[in-house]
Structures are given as C-alpha cells and as structure tokens.
Amino acid sequence: MIHVCAATAYKYYYTVYVELITIFVFIAIMNPYMPFQADERIHPIDTSVSRKIAELVQKGINNTREMQRHLQLFVEQMFAGKVQPRHSSRKFFPNRRTVRHHIYRCMKNCQRSRLDQDNLQELVREWQEKDSGAHIYLRRRTDTADDTEDVCDSACAAAAADDDDDVHIPPVAGNSSEQKFLFVYQSGNQQRLLRRYGSLVSLDATYRTTKYALPLFFLVVRTNVDYQVVACFVTQDETSGSIAEALRILKEWNPEWTPKYGMTDCDEQEINAMEYTFAEVQVFLCDFHREQAWERWVSRVDHGVHMCKEEVLARLRRVAHASTILEFKEAVASLQEWNTWKENVQLSRWFTNTWLNQARVSITV
Description:
Blueprint: H1 2-30, H2 37-42, H3 47-58, H4 64-78, H5 96-111, H6 114-130, E1 135-139, H7 148-161, E2 182-186, H8 188-197, E3 200-206, E4 216-222, E5 227-235, H9 240-253, E6 261-264, H10 268-277, E7 282-285, H11 287-299, H12 309-320, H13 325-337, H14 339-343, H15 345-354, H16 359-362
Parallel strand pairs: 3-6, 6-7
Antiparallel strand pairs: 1-2, 2-5, 3-4, 4-5
C-alpha cells in the first residue's frame, strides 16, 4: 500500500511539473524577453549591448550610471515598434557590476592596442624627419601575462565598496618585467617658449577625450600674448611615478628650466610629481578645475545638497578666496558651524579630505 501511494504521488507531481514546463515554454515563445533569473545567470548580455559599451568607452564614457542611461536609450531605440524587453532582463539591462566589468575590459583592451602603437611609432619617424629640432620619446608597452580577470574583479569590488561610479584602471604592482607605455613630445618652438616663459607652468590633464583610456597631459605657459602648450605626454597610468618620469625627461631636454610656480588641479599624484621633480617649485590649485569639480559635486542629487548648492558654493568659495591665514581660518570656522555642514556627513567628509588637506596650495597671496 505504501509503494502504491508513493508511485501515485510521483506520477502526480511529474504530471504537474510537465504542465508547468509546457506553460513556461509557451509564454517564453510568446514573449522571448520575459525575465527569468536562472536564464539571466546562464546567458551573457546581448552582443549588441556589449558592442555599444565598447563604442561608448572609446568616446570617453567610463561612468557606470552614465553608461546605463545610454544603454537604456539604445535598447529602447533597438526595439522601437517591437515588444520591449523588461528592465529586469539582464541580457539587455545589465546591472552596475556587469557594466563596470565590461567598461574595465574595454579600457584595458584600448590600452593594449599593438596596431596603434605601431602606427604611433611610424608617426614618430615622420615627425622627426619634418622637424629635426623636435624632441620625441616613445616607449612601447610590453604585454605581460597578468590575470586580467582577477585584476578586474578586485578593481570592480574595490570601486563598488567606495560607491565610485567612475571606472579606473589601477596600476599593476609588483611586476618588474612590465614596461609601461610613455610618450613625450616637445617641438623646437615649444622648447623656445618653455625656456623663455617657464617660470610658471600649468600641468593640465585631459580625461575622457581620447578613445585609448590613457591620460594625456599638457604643459602650458603664459606668454606675452596668450597661453601656449610647450610640451605634452601620454602615460599608461595616472600615478605620480609615471607623471614624474615624463617631467624628468622634459627636464633633461631643458636643463636650464627651473620653474618657480606650478599649477594643477586637485590631484595628489600630479602635485607630488611636480614637487618631486622640481624641489623648489610652489604648487597652486587651478581655480577653473576647482570650480568645475565643486559644481559637479554639489549638483549630484545623491550628495544631498543640490537644493541649496548656491549657498554651499558661496561658503566654499569664501574659503578658497581667502588671501590671509586669518581669513582662511574664519571662513573654515563659519563653514563648520553651519547646520547643513553638521547634518550632511558626505559634504563635510568630502570637503575635509579632498580640499582642506590641500589648503597649503590653495591659498593664494
């Protein structure tokens, strides 16, 4: 009797299981984009979405939230007039972790382009033939057998822990066999301008303007007419060591060049590189980049001060525009006594850690 009941129960549950599978297959045929968690884990994102990520990375987009907004518009246009996939479908709407992973891999592939390095080497030969007075330094990047997947996972996990939307490629430490890419250029006319007006130089870094995910730096001086670029260099990463190496090469090309003042944005790597290469230089922060960074930070909704951003900026500018130590201390004290400062931990932590730590270089006399 027991065996008969077990067999009957097994037959019943088997019949129900087959019917459920049949119903699900029918629904899936009618709507192929119905979300199904198990299927999403098995299948990767759509190839069109993956190609779109690579295209946007080449245009300079490395922010996960911005990338997701572009992908949403892309998918909606791709299915215009058709059944739209649901937003829970990871095949067409990947989550932030997946997007970050794909951005990282695309940026890494751009860095390793052998063909572009070959083309650049050919261009260097042409430039040297056309301008015999030009100084050009090119060091190709050597491929190493680093574990890209492990580095990508660790980098993405660290960025997610810091709640950072921008994807960066961290330098690979402990690999002495790796030869980093470096390109430094200075024409004969640029060298003449640097020697004449090089007492104050500005180091301007550009990001998201090239498809290679490599930082491009311009060295700028103020002439009697306008501002002129007197050198440029491209490094593999944004570390102070890589920047200082490029500056040392420029110093070797111009042995009499000893800048008294330097200007950068609020970046410790650039500041440290300038101070390390030129022991007597005094570094100041660029007002333009400071204003740009402050405007972007206070405008973000998740930072909680976008509704009163004008008042926030006015108080921050009072600190930046202080011309004496006394004015600076009074402006900081007034800011710290403000209720919004006390209530918003993000604001106080950001301004203290990022900007007040650079007070020695931000106060102009």
